[in-house]
């Protein structure tokens, strides 16, 4: 697959537009640093991300839906208009996460689920009114800005610069694995999407270094740095890569351990235990 100058220019324009969008969007903060709640902590968040991932997979949804729902959830929790009860009640905290998943599915999936189905997945823990009311709260808190650039958006456009689509596909799969790990650490939600995308892409390139020779890798880095000021070798990216590497430990929860906290559509169990059993 050859990449001509017009294609490169189009990709650069798209990346520049994405950067402009992310610069205009409010930055998410680590809300655990601003709350004194003894009920909700980062282990609760990890439990919810695991649950959303498994439900999304069971429903056949794309990984984008889970990543976007996590982004929406963190932005909502970090907003000044987030209700205090989200930090004082595990049930409400979970409701916010589940509703963000529902919102994300409506944005991304060609065929999504209805509120009634979501209530069934949660086995009656929440009513349709609970979900629609929380949906309004989230949209108002985010001022209806639900379609912000995601890290994977940057990565996919960058990979279009590569001459070999086969290598691009392998790298995208690797990036997805890194991104799933990153989504469990709120630190990455506080970083710019472009920085998270570059972090995961740089990690994927290091993991599959045989896919590109040194000259091709250098060319890609130079194009990104010169055209859209995206530097994969910056201290910011290197520090993020070290943090991401530290998250990828053999001791992370296995799929079988995670499933005891979750309720998939094929085997719905009360959603109130997703976090409660962590206590």
TrEMBL record:
One matching Pfam family, short form?
Answer: Cyclin_N
- SMART domains referenced in this protein's UniProt entry, alphabetically: CYCLIN
Q: Which UniProt keywords apply?
A: Cyclin
The Cyclin-like domain, residue ranges: 50-140
Its domain of life reads Eukaryota
Phosphoprotein among keywords: no
Q: Which SUPFAM superfamilies match?
A: Cyclin-like
Q: Which family does it belong to?
A: Belongs to the cyclin family.
PANTHER family, per this entry? Answer: CYCLINS (PTHR10177)
The entry's protein name is Cyclin-like domain-containing protein
The root-end lineage is: Eukaryota, Sar, Stramenopiles, Ochrophyta, Bacillariophyta
